[in-house]
Amino acid sequence: MSHPEVIIVGGGPAGLSAAIELRKRGVDRVTVLERERVAGGVPRHTAHLGYGLRDLRRVTTGPRYAVALVRAAQRADVTIRTDTAVHSLDDLHADAIVLATGVRERPRSARLVPGDRPAGVYTTGSLQQFVTLHHQKVGTRAVVVGAEHVSFSAVLTLAHAGCTVAAMVTPFTHHQSYRTLAFATAGRHRVPVRTGADVAEIVGRSRVEAVFLTDGTRIECDTVVFTGDWIPDHELARRAGLAMVPVAKAPLVDAGMHTDRRGVFAIGNLVHPAETADVCALDGRAAAASVLDFLTTGRWPEHVWPVTVDAPIAWASFDHRGITLRVQEIVHGQIRLTHSAEVQWLSGERTWLPNRSITIPHAEMRTTTRPFADHRIHVDLIR
User: Fold this and answer.
1) Would 84 be classed as within a structural domain?
2) Which of 8, 141, 21 is nearest to 84 (CA)?
3) Is 303 part of a structural domain of the chain?
4) Per-residue CA distances from 192 to 175, 185, 186, 198 (Å)
């Protein structure tokens, strides 16, 4: 252990930031394995502003943010191996492994949307790669499925590609993004947001011709973009037999980002689908301290317990800020955290939106809830 090695699987904001911080803390050998040809993660193909505020203390575009992280890792002498896919943790020989494989959107097939199978159907990620990385044209009239943060990002990408957005559709009664973001994107481009409806069918032979909504409306379009509905890239974690959070489909971690397998950590959007890039980057920085502690002392928690929840809370997990969670539906009430059957945190009464990050900060919890050494942590909602 005099020259420990750490392998990080995933070269996005979380993985690169963890690698940089580990080198700063004196870990000699840090290797990042990235399956894409270029490291940097999702920000590489997200060309709009909004990156870097929390970690770099400045606002920049996604591609510039990705380049900044890669260059910082190179200056820190982090080894970055691209075009390298990991299929089993048993193939990795290191003193510690950090999983930072990120998150993806569920495509049409996973959402079981019936109809024809024409060209012109994307997720936000595939759309942005098509437009930003490959400079290709898409259609001329699109329907965006979803109304959360990334959905409004898709509106910007479509506008950049010269494609008009006929409508955004969401089954909820309200969009789930910030008012300012909605106004600056959908409002600016005069995109109608149709609430209380979802896509029921896609029509078209060689190319999308229209969509039918669950309320019976037909919208003529040649492009459909499915947004959000996040699922972690968790296949490697599942193959390794790691304990999982069922609804989130993410590896179970504690406050130090330890999994239930000794020497294996999980960070970023792999464990909380899905937060912004800078939040994931700060996850990586914070996890470096836990990795270094393990390398130095060999300590590992005897058990990693889940944060239990009651509906309408969908799931809850740890990150560097505290506990992050999501709700299943639009609900009104107070969110409550209990530990050892005692209330340790209680929110004000308000309306909570699905697909919106909700965080219970460490700093606002009573001291007795930290470092969460047992399993008696529960989150529910008081209506």
Assistant:
1) yes
2) 8
3) no
4) 11, 11, 7, 14
Pick from 120, 121, 170, 136: nearest CA to 150: 170
Count of Cβ atoms closer than 10 Å to residue 285 Cβ: 18
Residues 6+ apart with CB under 8 A from 182: 152, 175, 193
pTM: 0.94
121 with 91, same domain? Answer: no
Tell me the chain's radius of gyration from C-alpha atoms. Answer: 21
Using one digit for the tens of pLDDT, what is the confidence trace for 114-149? 999 999 999 999 999 999 888 888 999 999 999 999
Residues 101 and 243 reside in one and the same domain: yes
In a domain, 302, yes or no: no
pLDDT at 200: 96
Asked if 289 and 315 sit in the same domain, the reply is: no
Q: Are residues 215 and 74 in the same domain?
A: no
What average pLDDT score do residues 151-178 get? 94
Helix locations, the chain, DSSP H: 13-24, 62-75, 108-111, 124-128, 149-160, 179-182, 235-239, 277-297
Torsion of CA 119, 120, 121, 122, to 10 degrees: 120
| Cα-based torsion angle of the residue sequence 117, 121, 123, 124 in order, rounded to the nearest 10 degrees | 180
Residue 374 has pLDDT above 70, yes or no: no
Q: Looking at the structure, tell me whether residues 221 and 245 fall in a common domain.
A: no
Instruction: State the residue for tokens 């992050």.
Output: 324
CATH number at residue 176: 3.50.50.60
| Alpha carbon 277 to its chain's center | 8
Q: Would you tell me how many other CB atoms lie within 10 Å of the CB of residue 37?
A: 7
Distance CA(314)–CA(35), nearest Å, equals 31
Confidence at 373, pLDDT banded by 50, 70, 90: low
Total residues found in the chain within this entry: 383
pLDDT digits (tens, 9 = 90+) for 175-201: 999 888 888 888 899 999 999 999 999
Give the pairing of strands 29-33 and 79-81.
Answer: parallel
The whole domain housing 43 covers 5-105+231-297
Are 126 and 215 in the same domain?
yes
* Cβ contact 356:172 at 8 Å: no
Domain count, the chain: 3
Give pLDDT tens digits for 92-109: 999 999 999 999 999 999
Same domain flag for 327 and 264 = no
